[in-house]
Design brief:
Layout lengths: L1 H11 L7 H20 L9 E6 L4 E8 L16 E4 L9 E7 L3 E2 L2 E2 L13 E6 L4 E12 L16 E9 L11 E9 L1
Parallel strand pairs: 2-3, 4-9
Antiparallel strand pairs: 1-2, 1-7, 3-4, 5-6, 7-8, 8-10, 9-10
Length: 192
């Protein structure tokens, strides 16, 4: 499974001018390899995540399962008030780094899930509820900001070692010309 995450990360950071055919082939190969590896792994005792709860910022959101977009970036949840779990990586609570992303900003005057993520501080608690009703606690270790074009491979971590959960969103003022936010905010957490 470590190879798959490495392959996905490698693809994620391929320049966007790569051809679409190469992108599609890479995704297909990565998915095929992941399926082959998963067939040889024991069934996880940790359920798939269904809710993300962060009391400090009054967040209680449903979890959507997301993969990769056609251009190789991590997809985002369809609903602005939900969060997306990167289902090609570990489940929150499994060894390795689980990733969740969420929208930022207002849409029709309605706040997005991760609008207040910037308010978290080291030591704050984050809770994941899985499909089995089990609550897994994570503690904020660090908060970093990245340029959207920076090498942020550290965000995806590795697929071994202790359990981590990283939360990703955008931040700043919307840039109409670039059609994007200027910063990516990442909250790094460790399983309690």
């Amino acid at each position: 499974m470590g190879f798959i995450l490495y392959a996905v990360l490698l693809f994620y950071f391929i320049p966007k001018d790569s051809t679409q055919n190469n992108s599609e082939a890479f995704i297909e190969n990565a998915i095929t390899l992941q399926q082959q590896e998963q067939e040889n792994l024991p069934v996880s005792s940790i359920g798939k995540p269904v809710r993300l709860k962060i009391p400090k910022i009054n967040l209680d959101s449903a979890v959507e399962f997301v993969g990769l977009t056609p251009d190789g970036a991590m997809d985002v949840p369809k609903e602005r008030t939900d969060v997306g779990w990167f289902e090609l990586g570990p489940r929150p609570g499994e060894n390795g780094t689980a990733i969740m992303d969420g929208h930022y900003g207002l849409n029709n005057k309605k706040a997005s899930a991760f609008n207040n993520l910037y308010k978290l501080r080291k030591g704050d608690k984050i809770y994941i509820e899985d499909e089995k009703g089990v609550i897994i606690t994570f503690i904020v270790r660090e908060i970093r900001r990245y340029d959207p074009n920076a090498d942020a491979s550290v965000v995806f971590g590795v697929n071994s070692g202790p359990a981590h959960l990283n939360l990703i969103t955008c931040e700043g003022e919307w840039d109409e010309i670039l059609n994007s936010y200027p910063t990516r905010l990442v909250v790094f957490t460790d399983k309690d």
